[in-house]
Amino acid sequence: MAFPSIEEARKLSEEELAEEVLAAKRELFQLRLEQATRRLEKPHLFKHTKHRLAQLLTVERERQLKAATEE
Known about the structure:
InterPro entries: Ribosomal_protein_uL29, Ribosomal_uL29, Ribosomal_uL29_CS, Ribosomal_uL29_sf. The protein has three helices and no strands. The protein is mainly alpha-helical. The chain is elongated.
């Protein structure tokens, strides 16, 4: 399974980006819960979800910095 492209994250609107960040954080929580109860079947999902969350937060920060320099 390939990592998602950061270009996909850059195409999202502000609201969609916030929703995706929240969804990724929820998924990480769920994965940690499954790992703690020994029900986790796909441990590689940790890496993929963390990677996606980092991409989303990077895009969010880029937009914040761009907005700050335009003011």
